[in-house]
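Please review the protein record below. Tell me whether the encoded fold seems credible here:
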Amino acid sequence: MTRDRDVTGERAQFTEPEQRAIRETFAAGGTPQCPRCAVALTARAIGGGSFGLGYARRREWLMCPTCRRSVLFDVRRGTRN
């Protein structure tokens, strides 16, 4: 078993197409579901940026309460970074 696989042999992370679908659903105002478990993902807002730099990132961390997979992305950009 490789390090990027879980105990069932599946990838331990969401695939890029799964991540993109989750971000698009969230950006459209919907409640994204885990593509593996079909349960609603839990959202946690994460602040960012440094004081005095003139910018602040707004990130969301969406987590599956069942399989524990997650995706983190910058809300404004719709990307991981």
Q: What stands out?
A: The first helix runs from residue 16 to 27. The helical segments are 16-27. The chain has one domain: 16-74. The mean pLDDT is 78.
